[in-house]
Amino acid sequence: MTTESIPDLAPTTAPSPEDRSYDYDLLVIGSGPGGQKAAIAAAKLGRRVCVVERKHMVGGVCVNTGTIPSKTLREAVMYLTGMAQRDVYGASYRVKADITVQDLLARTQHVIGREVEVVRAQLLRNHVDLVSGTARFVDPHTVQVTGDSGAGDALITAATFVIATGTSPARPAAVEFGPRVVDSDGVIELEKVPSSMVVAGAGVIGIEYASMFAALGTRVTVVDKRPALLEFCDPEVVESLKFHLRDLAVSFRLGEEVASVEANANGTVTTLSSGKRIPAETVMYSAGRQGQTASLDLAAAGLEADSRGRIEVGHHYRTKVPHIYAVGDVIGFPALAATSMDQGRIAAYDAFGEPVRDLTALQPIGIYTIPEISYCGRTEAELTADSVPFETGVSRYRELARGQIVGDSYGMLKLLVHSDTKELLGVHLFGTGATDLVHIGQAIMGCGGTVDYLVDTVINYPTLSEAYKVAALDVTNKLRAVERFGA
C-alpha cells in the first residue's frame, strides 16, 4: 500500500560483501514472486542472501494456493469440458463425461510440483540460502526462525530485510467455514464437483472460480453487495462476460448482501439481507485477502500493519524503518504476481545503491475468467470524465479466420484512440488469449505509438493478433467519417 506519508529517504549505506557484522546482507521473508526476485537480484549484486520460508510453501502463496493452482485448474477445466471446441463440435461436446476433482487436481499438483522445483533451483543456482521455518522479528536487525516442526529456533541477523509474506483469504468472524463453506484456498480441496454453488463476493477471485465451476456444469449463483460486476473494467466487456456466464446458467444477485450461511451434512442455505434464501451444495466465500503479518511481530522491528494486515511503504517499497522493505500482496494494490516480481527487484536494487527506474504507470490487468478479460491503459469512463476526445475501434473474433479455427465466436478487442493525435489510449480484450494479446497494445502505448502503426504494419494471418488490425481500421474509418461529414 504505497503512500506519500512515508518520506523519500536517501539509500541506506550498502554493506560491502566482505562486511561480516551481520549473518546476511539481505534476509527475505517469503519466497513468492516478490521475495524470490528480491533475493535473486541481491545475489546477482554479489550480496549474501537468505530466504526464510515454510517448508511446504516454497514459491509462496502464488505457487501453492493462489495464482498457479487456480490458473492450472482453469486450464484443466477448459480442456476436460471441451469448452473451447463447443462452437465447432456442438454444445454437448466434452473430452470427459464425468469430470472428478481428482481429474482436475492431477494437473494442478503436477504443475505446482514443477514450479516449486523451479523456484528451489533458481535460488540454489544464485547461491541464496533457503531456511525452512517461520520468521518473527526480535529487533530491527534480527529474526527468530522457528522450524516447521516447532523446534530448532535460530536467530539470524541481516543488514537489510524484504518482507514478502503475501496474503491469505480473509475469513469474516460471522461465517463458519467447514466442508460445505470454503474460501479460495479450500475450494481446490473439495472432495467432488458440487452440483450447485453460491459464490459470495464477485471480485476477481470470486468471478474466476464462478466461471470455472459453471463450465463444469455446476449451477452457480453469484452474490455481491456492489451493484455492478468488476466496476474497474470496460462495461461492454463486463456485459459480454455476464452474457456468456448466463449462458452457462449462472445467476447474479448484485446489490445483495449475505446475512447468514447455514450448513449441514446435506448442503447449505444462504440467506440474503433482502430475505431471499438460496440453497446450494457448497458456498465459496470470497471476502478479499488479509496480509500474512500476524506472526511477524512487526512491533519488534518498529513497524505495524493496518486492519487488513498490510504494510505501508513509500518510495521503492521502503517502510518507515529505512532498512526494511515490503513488496507484493502484503502492501496492497495492485496485488499481482507480475507486479510483485518487479517490486522485489526494485527494492533489492534500492537497498544496495544500484540505479533503478520506477515501474511505469502503464500496467496490464488480467482476469482469468472463462473467457479471459484483460486490459491496459484507460477506460471510456476515465477519458469521458477527463474530457479527452476519443474514438473506439472494435474487432470481433467471429470475424477473424483464427477465431473460427479456435472456436471462439464471442471474443472481442476494443481500442480507445485519441480523436486528434490518434494516440492509442487503451486496449480492452475479452476472449481467448486476452491476457497475452494485451501486451501488443501495452508495447505500442508504452512507446507513445498511434493507431497508424497498426494500420500500416503487417500482422501474421491467420492469428488472433489480427484483431488489432481490424480494430485499427475500424477506428480510422470512424475518424475519417468525422472529417468527411464535418467538412
UniProtKB/TrEMBL annotation:
InterPro entries: Class-I_Pyr_Nuc-Dis_Oxidored, FAD/NAD-bd_sf, FAD/NAD-binding_dom, FAD/NAD-linked_Rdtase_dimer_sf, Pyr_nuc-diS_OxRdtase, Pyr_nucl-diS_OxRdtase_dimer
The protein's Enzyme Commission number: 1.6.1.1
EC class (word): oxidoreductase
Cellular compartments annotated: Cytoplasm
Keyword field: Cytoplasm, FAD, Flavoprotein, NAD, NADP, Oxidoreductase
Superkingdom of origin: Bacteria
Limits of the FAD/NAD(P)-binding domain: 24-344
Molecular function in Gene Ontology: NAD(P)+ transhydrogenase (Si-specific) activity
Domain Pyridine nucleotide-disulphide oxidoreductase dimerisation, first and last residues per copy: 364-471
Cofactors demanded by this protein: FAD
Family designation: Belongs to the class-I pyridine nucleotide-disulfide oxidoreductase family.
NCBIfam families for the chain: PRK05249.1
Cited function: Conversion of NADPH, generated by peripheral catabolic pathways, to NADH, which can enter the respiratory chain for energy generation.
Protein name, as recorded: NAD(P)(+) transhydrogenase (Si-specific)
Organism this protein belongs to: Aquipuribacter hungaricus
Lineage, broadest ranks: Bacteria, Bacillati, Actinomycetota, Actinomycetes, Micrococcales
